[in-house]
Specification:
The complex is a heterodimer of chains A (about 300) and B (about 350).
Chain A: H1 2-14, H2 17-46, H3 63-70, H4 72-104, H5 110-122, H6 125-135, H7 142-149, H8 165-193, H9 198-206, H10 210-221, H11 223-239, H12 242-247, H13 259-269, H14 273-281, H15 283-303
Chain B: E1 4-11, E2 21-27, E3 33-37, H1 44-52, E4 59-64, E5 67-68, E6 79-82, H2 94-104, H3 109-122, H4 138-150, E7 156-160, H5 168-185, E8 188-193, H6 196-202, E9 205-210, E10 213-218, H7 220-225, H8 230-235, E11 242-246, E12 249-253, E13 259-260, E14 268-280, E15 285-291, E16 301-305, E17 316-322, E18 327-330, E19 336-337
The chains are: A mainly alpha (about 300), B alpha+beta (about 350).
């Protein structure tokens, strides 16, 4: 008994409250300084008339929100944020599924192809976006060059990929999809590999063809991992401003402006901190909803 | 119902290596329960998977109902298969699991309910239709897998070790249930197992395989009493057949035929037998030891007795094997040969 009690005591000492606190202080500090701090500042600014270079700040109530809601740029930004986020998710999920099915099979050079597919995810997003800026350039675009060489267009008459509103939207969408594809592919590939081989075999014996096996057996079984891929993709795209900023800076005529890029343009570049803060707060409700679903998926994964 | 036939069926996974299945010829009988029996790695599952169409043969032919099916996909072979893991679709209810083959084979929708209920009642799982597979016990899962297999009334049933995931007690009752089920539906069934008890108990005939080669195809009594070679002789029976090399032949006898001299009638071969171990198994005793002299001297031999109470460890006794229970095998081919006169001294 005595020995047992002594041992319990020593274990208790190792788990003293002090040590526990010390272990998670860095995480708490990180969240307070880099997340909670800026977030509360954004709240503060959104209800004030804060401007860059101005030390004074007054409470203005909902004035900022009222004025941005009236602005056509803001409405455009909301619309684009949703278009980019939702459409790129559709492209990514369809594409990643096709890639995952292809990469599941064993063939020569599969390792190399997997590496190539993962590259866009490993490279810094700014570098990738600059690469695309050149690929889609109005004069030096390789895509235009190929189209001209194939006689689809006359020289110097190729489409301005980033200069015409619809093409610019499509281009930004394409780059977003390119960026997210590797991550989703790797997730879905892992999800597919985790399904026991005899399940699709049973489906084959039961008489199901390729499509029925995919849509009624495999994809429903991957639902948890699919939701992780989609939720991550939603957050990455919805909050990203690098791609838009580098490719088009929101233009032409605000046609590719998103909430983060508009907040940056007005708040930092335009010195109107209050308006920028108010715009970025519009991201919050949607992100809360996504975060809620992510936690639910994570919880369900733990339970099973 | 249909007959399954294979003609020199061969599967080589890696070129240059020994095949997993080597030139197997077999033919089931109408409505028979045929068991593929062999140790792990014997190629029994590969053979079954080729019949199912999940594995492409390297050479040879597979016929189902007289038609070559080599180039048909699994869905066109009119077979049903129960996997070792049951392979139930985890996201579908029991009802939808059983209805899946009907949907996949485009059976008219209004027939689904009736057919699913028929299959479910045949296996006594009518009350489980709304459950998900994860809410079922091992035995219930097996029944769902069987119901899913029977629902579309296949020509042939293929079962891949369906009892190996069940605990010992459940396995016995599930085995009995499977036998009853087979008698009721009468569909030609091929059953893969490494368990000789299952094979002997359930099979109309047993195909004994090792290293991809068929060693014997026969009824349980044939393979047990008249093994075709030493592999079959030692693979079946626990403890296995005693084998002894005598000049140019191998002589074998079953432990239950190696008994004290007093209980052996007729012409027999007698040994002085030194008892080295005695195991009490309830209904029987397993005695092992070494013959004290002669050609068998020093070799371990098993005896299976109803009672070993008058034997003691370390004692030496007179044991004998009836002459008619001796099996003879060629020493080089290990195949069964005609009885010979041999010298035991």
């Amino acid at each position: 008994m005595a020995i047992a009690r002594a041992r319990i005591k020593s274990v208790g000492a190792a788990q003293s409250p002090l040590l526990g606190a010390a272990m998670f202080t860095p995480a708490v500090l990180y969240i307070l300084l880099l997340v909670a701090g800026p977030f509360s500042l954004a709240f503060l600014y959104a209800f004030s008339d804060a401007r860059i270079g101005n030390t004074e700040m007054h409470y203005v109530g909902l004035e900022n929100f009222r004025s941005i809601l009236k602005s056509p740029s803001f409405r455009m930004a909301i619309r684009n944020s949703f278009i980019f986020t939702i459409c790129s998710q559709i492209v990514v999920i369809v594409g990643a599924n096709i890639l995952a099915i292809a990469l599941e099979k064993t063939f020569r050079g599969r390792g190399f192809i997997r590496f190539l597919i993962l590259l866009p995810w490993v490279a810094p997003i700014a570098l990738g976006a600059i690469g695309w800026k050149w690929i889609l350039d109005s004069i030096y675009s390789v895509i235009s060059w190929v189209l001209v060489a194939l006689h689809f267009y006359k020289p110097f008459n190729a489409p301005m990929w980033l200069g015409e509103p619809h093409l610019a939207i499509a281009s930004v969408l394409l780059v977003h999809s390119w960026r997210l594809m590797p991550f989703s592919t790797v997730l879905l590939l892992a999800g597919r590999t985790a399904i026991p081989k005899d399940i699709p075999e049973a489906a084959a014996v039961d008489g199901a063809g390729f499509w029925r096996t995919q849509f009624q057996i495999i994809i429903p079984m991957m639902r948890p991992i699919l939701s992780v891929a989609v939720l991550f993709g939603l957050i990455f795209t919805f909050t990203d401003m690098t791609v838009v900023y580098i490719l088009t800076a929101g233009g032409p005529f605000d046609s590719t402006q998103t909430l983060p890029s508009l907040a940056f343009a007005m708040g930092i570049q335009g010195s109107d901190l209050a308006a920028g803060a108010a715009i970025s707060l519009f991201l919050v409700p949607l992100l809360i909803i996504i975060a809620y679903f992510m936690l639910r998926v994570a919880h369900r994964a733990e339970v099973n | 119902m249909a007959v399954v036939e294979t003609r020199s069926l061969t599967k080589v996974f890696k070129e240059g290596e020994l095949g997993a299945v080597n030139s197997v010829n077999l033919e089931t009988r109408e409505g028979e329960f045929l068991v593929f029996l062999g140790p792990s790695g014997s190629g029994k599952t590969t053979l079954l998977r080729m019949i199912a169409g999940l594995e492409t043969p390297t050479s040879g032919e597979i016929l189902i109902g007289g038609r070559v099916v080599n180039d048909l996909s699994p869905r066109d072979r009119r077979i049903a298969m129960v996997f070792q893991s049951y392979a139930l679709y985890p996201h579908l209810s029991v009802y939808k699991n059983i209805a899946f083959p009907l949907k996949a084979q485009k059976v008219k929708k209004d027939l689904h309910k009736q057919k699913v209920e028929w299959a479910a009642s045949l296996l006594g799982i009518g009350a489980l239709l709304d459950r998900k597979p994860r809410e079922l016990s091992g035995g219930e899962r097996q029944r769902v897998a069987l119901a899913r297999a029977i629902v579309r009334e296949p020509a042939v049933f293929l079962l891949d070790e369906p009892l190996s995931n069940l605990d010992a007690k459940l396995r016995a009752s599930a085995r009995e249930e499977l036998e009853r089920f087979h008698r009721r539906v009468g569909t030609t069934t091929i059953y893969v197992t490494h368990d000789q008890v299952e094979a002997m108990a359930m099979g109309d005939r047993v195909l004994v395989l090792n290293k991809g080669v068929v060693h014997q195809l026969g009824t349980p009594t044939e393979v047990y009493d008249n093994p075709a070679d030493t592999f079959v002789a030692t693979f079946l029976g626990s403890p296995p057949m005693n084998l002894a090399e005598l000049s140019d032949v191998i002589v074998g006898f079953r432990p239950e035929h190696f008994r004290p001299v007093s209980s052996v009638n007729g012409e027999a071969v007698a040994f002085r037998f030194k008892v080295e171990n005695i195991e009490y198994l309830g209904s029987e005793w397993i005695v092992s030891g070494t013959p004290a002299s002669g050609k068998l001297g020093g070799q371990k031999v098993f005896s299976r007795l109803n009672s070993a109470q008058d034997l003691s460890l370390g004692g030496t006794y007179d044991f004998a094997v009836p002459q008619c229970e001796l099996k003879f095998f060629d020493r080089s081919t290990e195949k069964r040969v005609e009885p010979k006169v041999v010298s035991w001294q």
